[in-house]
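Format notes (please read before filing issues)

Several people have asked whether sequences and structure tokens are stored in separate files. They are not. Every record keeps both together, in the order shown below: the sequence lines, then the token lines. Line labels are part of the format and must not be stripped during preprocessing.
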Amino acid sequence: MANLQNDRGICDKSLLLQMSRKSRLINYRHPYLSELDSRFYASLDFINLQPKNIFSIDIFPNFSDGLKSTLFKNANWVDGSSLLNKPKSFAKKNFFLDILENLNFLNKKKEIFYPSKNYRYAFSDNTFDYVEALSVIPWANSPVLLINEIYRLLDYGGFFGFASFGPNTLDTLIATLSKENKSQVRKSFLPLIDLHDIGDFCTSAGFVSPVVASNRVCFKYNKAETALNELRLLSGNPRSDRDGFLRGKSWHKKIINALNNCKDSDGFVTLEFEFIYGH
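Then the structure lines:
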């Protein structure tokens, strides 16, 4: 499989590998994503929505059912992944992808729909009256193509909801790690998109007057090692310009030192996220 790159500098092959690692095949929603989901759904409290056909796109579609069970109970939910369909020749070479393919909760409980490399899903125009893309935009190959495709899938008067992490996410950690490393470390983190650009993408796709909000949310830990483990469970680094070698113990030590320098006045290691959500 060729290394498909895009305007955000993300390597699709690396993304597919990292999201299929055994450590991420755990049957629960990551705390960062659960909180992001909650913020998004809370923003819908004062909107009168009664959709009948829903397409829910997620980076981890198998672990996103918690809040769905209480929302739009009479609707027909269809689940989609934002990852590309894995080529058979590639899947045969990866043990964890074989596990993912054969897990009971994937094959028996629900069908997951995957897009083509141009974010084209196998549905006709105007199929759904509600489409949500939660925990997708941070890893999207091309947010513009994704949002354009969602606009195609929505019926006239349909509703599009989304949630993402903003560019101020982990900014204190990035700054302290850059200081610890004595050079910039931005390419070790995902390039995130701000709320204004997301709003512009929605407008250019054809959506009218998108509403986009953001909040700062802090996650606190007793130990730096616990914070690092939780970060690792969320995602790897799929950037195409990342260093082409494995990091050693000295890099691990720098990260731990940087995390310890993110402690608040009560001594908790604090990771600050920018949550973006809108419709």
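For reference, the curators noted about this record: The two ends are 35 Å apart (CA to CA). The chain has ten helices and seven strands.
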